[in-house]
Amino acid sequence: MTTKLPPAVTRPSRSTSAAKSSAAATVALGWLHTAKFLTTAPELHFLPALDVPEIAFVGRSNAGKSTCINILTQQKQLAFASKKPGRTQHINLFSLGKQGVTDAVLTDLPGYGYAAVPRQDKIRWQQVMANYLVTRENLKGIVLMCDPRHGLTELDEILLEVIRPRVEEGLKFLVILTKADKLTRAEATKALAIMKLQAGGGEVRLFSAPKRIGIDDIAELLWQWAHPEADSGVMDAAASDAAAAAPNSQANDTPHAD
Ligand SMILES: Nc1nc2c(ncn2[C@@H]2O[C@H](COP(=O)(O)OP(=O)(O)O)[C@@H](O)[C@H]2O)c(=O)[nH]1
Ligand SMILES: [Mg+2]
Asked: Which residue minimizes the CA distance to atom 19 of ligand 1?
């Protein structure tokens, strides 16, 4: 007599690390998808004081920051909306959190250094950035967007110098090498190796909007930064729940460019 096994046993095993990783990415992407415009501020002192972890995105204009934020949050216009005239030099905050409970914020800092930016703007940016980095108490992590074909700009280098002591004290730091689709495999490997040396203990990841490289990995990293209390067991449990509830819920939006 044969015994019919319950479906859970006859299903192919999902307990490989790859399955776990993609389930964890589903949790992280689901969380990022909750991003909502919170507020915009022309100056640092207009930003509301917050007590949830904050993750700031910075980078040279045209590095691909808006595109990356929109893809990570699976919202075609989130960062684009902040580019309306008059807001371009503003600091924009987006709240994240399930069930309407904000558990983190993403900050989109003004892009810098593209083309002939007046010296005055450069100085202003440096001041805003330095102030923000030094005084923002809930700042948990910084994501620096860099187009690897251009490498680090002068302002990127200044940023690295400013944050180095804070990274040593535990501030999270990630360099995203954007537009990886423009690189050969050898160029990508080299760009990663060089940036790992320059990032001073920070993480480095490749990203491509059209080829959808790096999305899951970056999403997981940001989730972990914002949820340090969740040990891997909690993440595994949440991931299993998400995988059971929505096994095919990967992000599928087309990239948005602005
Ligand atoms: N090939 C390629 N182009 C990209 C990628 N991400 C952004 N871009 C393009 O780079 C330009 C600048 O992107 P945007 O997100 O506006 O940059 P931002 O100024 O840093 O916000 C746009 O033309 C985008 O379409 C990418 O991953 N691959
Ligand atoms: Mg932008």
From this structure: 62
